[in-house]
Amino acid sequence: MPAPENRFKTALARGRTLYGCWAGFADPYATEVLTTAGFDWLVIDGEHAPNDLRTVMHQLQVLEGCHSQPVVRLPMGESWAIKQVLDIGAQTLLIPMVESAAQARDLARAMRYPPDGIRGSGAALARASRFSGIADYTETANDQVCLVVQVETRAGLAALDDILQVDGVDGVFIGPSDLAADMGYRGDSAAAPVQQAIRDALGRVAASGKAAGILARDEALARQYRDWGAQFLAVGIDVLMLAQAARATMARWRDGDA
Q1: Which helix (H) or strand (E) segment is 212 a member of?
Q2: I need a surface site. Which of 23, 27, 187, 213 has the fewest CB within 10 A?
């Protein structure tokens, strides 16, 4: 029996446009609620949300068998952290602040077993192998991992063409907020120079044959990014959805009582 098919990776390879949402509550109950919306993919965020290894695992368990495919974002690209999340069942990783082809190659190797990489072969006791229930896991897992690197600085954009040449990088996610800050427009990713940089980057990624991704909560902006070449788009953030709905509800009552 081989490793499970990574349906997110398969869909990207087939050229499908995928719509996703950030899962920032760090709780499986909230993530399960998101699955009912039918998002194609959900980011279990370990960079800016209070996730740890166990909360990530619990959300992977909730997502198993669902239409929504999990994408785990680590706060960094350390090989030991990559090994741990792969062993608990993650197959698609999103790694922030990638700024060179060498860094991308190291990430791709960390996700793969030898001779293609350096992933430790302790899958016998791992959830990913169904606790040794998948006999061919270590022989087949390399084909089912998916690496998405975040390019979100001027240095990353300068190295983008080299990053796109790295075997094992399946997609590039452009980070508008960090890019804007790095370009001197903190808090203003709509600034014309930032938008031009995003357009150029999305076009280069799409032209390379790899998948381009981005976050845009504004519908018109998301459509624009899609037109510029984005193939997988995050169109919502769960904590903000709740915050905005709650504030709007209270504002209606407050205004009504005034």
Answers
A1: strand 211-215
A2: 187
Domains, the chain, ordered by start: 7-257 (3.20.20.60)
Question: What's the whole-number mean pLDDT along residues 140-158?
Answer: 98
Q: Residue 257: which pLDDT band, with cuts at 50, 70 and 90?
A: low
Distances (CA, A) of 199 to 18, 84, 95: 19, 35, 21
DSSP 107: H
Token digits of residue 173: 């996610």
Residue type, 111: M
* Residue 44 backbone phi and psi in degrees, to 5: -85, 105
48 is catalytic: yes
Residue 256 has pLDDT above 90, yes or no: no
First to last CA, the chain: 65
Side-chain half-sphere exposure of 73, counting CA atoms within 13 A: 23
**DSSP at 24:** -
The pair of structure tokens assigned to 73 is 């974002």
User: What pLDDT is stored for residue 1 in this prediction?
Assistant: 84
Angle between helices 101-110 and 79-87 (to 10 degrees): 40
Catalytic residue among 1, 2, 29, 48: 48
